[in-house]
Amino acid sequence: MALLLVLAATPAARDGRWALAAAVYLLPGLVYLAENLRVTGARGILYWSVLAGLVVASLVAARRVHARA
Length: 69
Description:
Layout: H1 2-13, H2 17-35, H3 42-68
Helix pairs in contact: 1-2, 1-3, 2-3
């Protein structure tokens, strides 16, 4: 839910720091996922994939905002 807010706040604030903060939040989770990939079920992989997708979308939105400025 918080990453959806980041996705909305990035273009609204016209600032990429929201996207950067989301990426910093996601990085330890992806490291954890990589270390425990064998024991992580399909739901865990799907969960982290959705979060990664939201972060990528917020980074793209930040890039577009930066390109317009």
